[in-house]
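Extended Data, panel c. Modelled sequence:
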Amino acid sequence: MNQDFPQELVDAILDHLADDRRSFKACSLVCRAWVSRCRSHLFGNCSLFPNDILVFRDLLRAPHCTFAQDIRSMSVVRLSDHKSDRYFDEIAVDLRGLTGIRELKLYLSSQYTVPSEARTFFCAGLFTAFPNVTCLILSFEFVLDMICLFPALRELHIHRSGLFLDSDSIPSTPPPRGLRSLEITGNAIGPMLVWLNRSNQLPNIDTLMLSSPHAAHIPTVRIALQKIGGALLHLSIDMARLPDPSTVFDLKMHPNLKTLTVRDAIPLRPPDNFDPNQFIRLIKRLAAPDLERLSLILEPRLYESLDWVALDQFLSTDRFPRMRSVVVAASADPDKEFVRQALPLLGGSGILQLD
């Protein structure tokens, strides 16, 4: 087949097939010029489960294995009580050959309850096989030492998980020097921020997402945000469990913010002392002229007594000349008409979006 188009145009056209694996398989047989792009989609994301770990091992060890170089992202699901789980550690030597992997997602059902035993488990075997990973997503309880196994790490996401904690929970080894983006949940927030602070790496963080912080970690969060200061470009905060978020998050300390997400996961029955205008106190400390996107995720019906006029006037002034969108979203279907009427200046400017 003659190549009538530049390769980058062919690649762009093939990209429109998205997740249509059947079409990618067919297109990969058309000509050599189409093979590489098709294979990058077919094998770019790889998932490993206990039931297929042995098959994957045999494929990697086959003399004519050609797909390994195309794998860029891997998801690993480990079940500690599965008979084949031990093979994940056995193939670590094979996985080290997959040097193109940049994103790693780990899901684990662990039997470990003692921190010392957990530390031995999480710092050996499978977890040592990905020194080139730049984005790590964890969905289980782990030990901080494990993060040191990923020297090229730039993004760390800790979902629905926590830490095994003991008197030695903060490693003496510093976190990866290139770490720039953090998404942290629950009881992992405090230890992770303390670790970065002790290593003098908080000023390196430009993206921070905090969800469900424990009350005991609030002082640590305050100190960390002060240390990060103007380096922060992207911030996402969860106001749940906080009596007054404006006393925890001082937005004026982050003048270079480009995106800000404020989430309030209020229960169906908010506490009797719930004050919706604490939200205003938080937002009105915002002083970021480069802010481009503000997302407010809340339940409008619980904020009917909010000073919406003050919010509308504050966000509609020329203090945010680069603002492209103000998104108001809710966990349930928002009353869009109520929000439009409450924020007429933003609505008239064309930047208000309702989700």
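The mean pLDDT is 85. This feature is highlighted in the accompanying rendering.
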